[in-house]
Amino acid sequence: MSTGTAAEGGAPARAREAGALWRLAAATLDGNWEHDHTVPSRTLYPHQWSWDSAFVAVGLAHVRPDRAWRELRTLFAAQWADGRVPHIVFNPALRAGSYFPGPEFWDSARAPGAPDVATSGIVQPPVHALAAWLVHRRAPSERSRAELAWLYPRLVAWQRYLTDRRDVGGAGLASIVHPWESGLDNSPAWDPPLAAVPADAAVMRAYRRHDTAHADAAHRPTDLDYARYVALVDAYRAGGYRDDGLDGRHPFLVECPLLNTALGLAEHALAAIARETGADPGPHRERAVRITAALVDRLYDPVGGTFHPRDLRTGRLVPARTALGLMPLALPGLPARPVAALLAEACSPRFGLAARMDRPLPSHDRTAPDFEPLRYWRGPSWQNLNWLLWRGLRAHHRFDLAAGLRDSMIDLVATAGCHEYFHPDTGAGLGSPAFGWTAALLLDVLAET
């Protein structure tokens, strides 16, 4: 990919393009605002999603910081008593059946410690502390310090939920109980552990999938995958969404590189928030070091030079080489050897990172036989993964590669608009149009350009 006519026309053309993209992104966020939160899209995702809201807050900090704080407050108002932040907070104004799996499917009201508002019972990566710190840093004020003070104990409780209740492997990493908790819903990384979950695609006849009404079924998870997703929710819900004894009863338990990278990043952000609010940053720094060490010890393959999820049911690393394996590069304390190996992996033909990129960064190894350029998380390029990697490249002083990835992110929206995800070869827009985090993270990289 290249910056095309904007680059050839010099600084005035680049400024005009940046201004037009800035207005497009800001208008997209305005259009997705829903009274106290942002919906990811007006079509496929009509409720509030957890890590979407964190990414959206990062972008809102540049244009509407008051809404950024409202976004995070609304999400954390739905925090469970055990500290978990649910991956969906449902809008009660929407009619029943308008989304599947909806509130009647999750039935959170029956679970001990659930909030008054209907939510799901699972989680997503804890990128919220990083988002809160970036919102404050972009627009510092007395209001932002008060918001940090309100959020800080809730963010700490969220971290403790993951590090204590979800440390099923006992090695200092959090486990996911469902592929949806990784954020990369049907990545090839989940195929081996998911294959062990008993399910029949016929089970989906009892439900109406909402996603395939708004997107091409060939771009979405299969009915068999969805049946397994439903079976996992059934199993977790049957136990009241409790986490004690998961190793003895739950069929899907995996240590995810992305979720645990976010866990470590959150401790770094909490150290900064603690310092700003008068708390002790030391314990957060120490926990960040421990999480990073556990990631390297548990999930890094020194032979292959990348990170992999660990299936706790088998004890083995999942062999697929996906963008999940690159995400630990976002950690500033990652040791030099894994950093060098991940840079080589990212720049290899599998992912194609370069100072000047001719194709977007894919979410899965584009040389693999199961690479699918159109199917959700099995090949397409996503701006939130690009953004996390962009931050990591800068943290490790690879500003040349960071600039190439930033230009690629900008080019994707300049060519195709604020789509949910993008074709990893052509850059064509895929999934939902007017997607929240695509707009928000575009604002953040434009602000740094």
Structure write-up:
One of its GO terms (molecular function) is Glc3Man9GlcNAc2 oligosaccharide glucosidase activity. The chain has 449 residues and is mainly alpha-helical. The protein is built from 16 helices and twelve strands. The chain has one domain (4-448): Glycosyltransferase (Alpha/alpha barrel). It has helices at 4-8, 10-32, 50-63, 65-76, 103-106, 128-138, 142-165, 191-195, 223-238, 246-249, 257-277, 282-299, 336-347, 383-395, 399-416, 436-448; strands at residues 33-34, 37-38, 48-49, 88-89, 175-176, 254-255, 300-301, 306-307, 310-311, 316-317, 421-422, 429-430. Helix 4 runs parallel beside helix 7 and helix 6 (128-138) packs antiparallel against helix 7. The chain is globular, with a radius of gyration of 20 Å. Mean pLDDT is 94; it is low at 1-7.
Question: How many strands, what sense, and barrel or not for the largest sheet?
Answer: 4 strands, antiparallel
Seen as an oligomer or otherwise, the chain set is single chain
The first-level CATH class is given as Mainly Alpha
> What is the C-alpha radius of gyration, as a whole number of Å?
20 Å
How many helices does DSSP assign?
16
Return the average pLDDT rounded to an integer: 94
**Structural class computed from helices and strand pairing:** mainly alpha
Strand order of the largest sheet: 5-6-9-10
CATH topology call: Glycosyltransferase
In the predicted model, the low-confidence regions spanning at least 5 consecutive residues are 1-7
